[in-house]
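Run: sequence + copper (II) ion -> complex structure.
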Amino acid sequence: MPTTAIYTILISLALIVGSIWASNSLDFLPAVASSNAPIYDELFKVLFVIGTVLFIGMTGLVIYSLIQFRKRPGQEGDGLAIEENLPLEIFWTAVPAVVILFVGLYSYDIYNRMGGMQLLSSDSHSHHSMSAQERLWGGIGEVKQEENESEVLPVINVELSAMQFAFLFNYPKGEIISGELHVPVGYPVRMRMESKDVIHAFWVPEFRLKQDVIPGQPTILNFTPTKTGKYPIICAELCGPYHGGMRSTVVVEEPDEYIAWFQKNSKSPDIEA
Ligand SMILES: [Cu+2]
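>> structure
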């Protein structure tokens, strides 16, 4: 094997290994605070590796060529007139095609695993009578089975109204209206979102979630917070002159803190402890 080929293989391998190492050790992303976040970050890491290999590989090759094949003193005339290289052209068409096909299929899989393929307005929940526990949790009678747990957790139901330039969170069963979103850690949240005026978008970077909030067409967002803390809610759709100030906070708290907050703010008298 010629030396150039060996060097090419070694440099490519080093580039791939280095990119994988960088994607795992560099800390670009905000806190991982929902069950969606690890799935999303998996895709981000794969895209980061592909992007780094391509960027460093291509710019590196260009810089190498500029230096290695520069015009030396005493060189006159044109370079070699090279035309066509069919195997090379097949190679540089096939490689990006395979990479793009892989990224496309993989992104679809991630989007599907995050629940992106569920119909936005799918709303087939029975409205049977609630237990006191379900009332307390703001439930509408729906319970959700977690995949790995035998415990059945009540779903936290929240209705989000977006308007120029604020988010309002309504907990129907507690008759709570809040400018801040409160959710208990580890419990599935089902948020029905609708806009009063123009299109807004609910975005929590720490949850890796972003969903449009549309006037006249409710959208449903399901998520499970996994880490306590306060995280920003940002409007991610240019919605008017004060769009940049359209922010709120999501408070992910321990279940007992959530219950305390719920009871303190609830105007509904039939909520029991
Ligand atoms: Cu907005």
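>> summary
Confidence is low (pLDDT under 50) at residues 123-136, 138-149. The pocket of copper (II) ion is lined by residues 165, 200, 235, 237, 239, 243, 246 (CB under 6 Å).
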